[in-house]
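In this section we turn from sequence analysis to structure. A common task in structural bioinformatics is to predict how a protein folds when a small molecule is present, because the ligand can shape the pocket around it. The inputs are simple: the amino acid sequence and a SMILES string for the ligand, here 2-oxoglutaric acid. Study the lines below before reading on.
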Amino acid sequence: MYSPDNLLDLKLQFDTQGFVHLPSLLSPALTERVRSAFFAARDRHAAETAQSVQRGAPFVDLPAILDADPVFVDLVDLPDLFPLLRMTVGEDLALNETIARLFYPGPTFTSPFHSDVANVLGVNHAHTPNFLVKLHIFFEDLSPEQGCLAFIPGSQHFPPAHVNPHRPTLASSSAVARVVPRAGDAVLFNTHVLHMAEDNRTNRVRTSLIYTYGHFWMRSKPSAVPSDLARFASTPQRQQLFGVDLPGVSHFARRLDRLAPPTPLQRLQSTGERIAHRLLPLTKLPPRA
Ligand SMILES: O=C(O)CCC(=O)C(=O)O
């Protein structure tokens, strides 16, 4: 479990660098459960996967991973990680997408150093580190040549086109940070930091899970919601993560720290704040000329 100071450091790293490597986020027992559930899902889809690979697909995403095994639902709010997710995204946190990926040996399929969200409208990313974050979870040791994630730390603060991602020598630049994860590790990053998966130059498939988190008011992908909501959206926290509406709560107002109905004191406080908010502008206005 991270201490409050560890959490502040991780948050500072996330804000400055744009990513944090979280070694051993999963216990060995959980890592093993994830690994065997992932391989069971892979085996169930072996025929479609083989067809895709035969057609030359560089990677395959297994469908509906939250329905494949309850362990994949358990990963959405890992107690060690959850406080950091709340700090990086905010109290209106919701799951946005899940991916279970097999990346086959070969060149990378990602664009060279890119932001996922550079072209979305209405956001000033240099000042919005909490817009959309991704968590890559690893349950097998990777070798440095096995399609690891690489980042240009701090680049989420750059103006557009500050870096030429096609510069041939960029990959070997000392400005690039590469994460070589071990089984049980995770990497959390701001989707606007320049990042990529490198070529998989080994003869082994790279496996990973990718959970994306955004805000409750955003539109989530179907892969972010388990089919059996009655079973899995069993707590107010999970209901929020899976986008389940609360009667009477606007999708802009959904907050993890306001899941319980307000106490009489909180109701009184918010009434007082509303009244003060109405009166204050009047008292502050300068006298008219
Ligand atoms: O490593 C991967 O599978 C994809 C990396 C990437 O570009 C992303 O997650 O946005």
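The domain at 4-257 is CATH 2.60.120.620 (Jelly Rolls). As an exercise, try to locate the residues that line the 2-oxoglutaric acid site and compare them with your own expectations.
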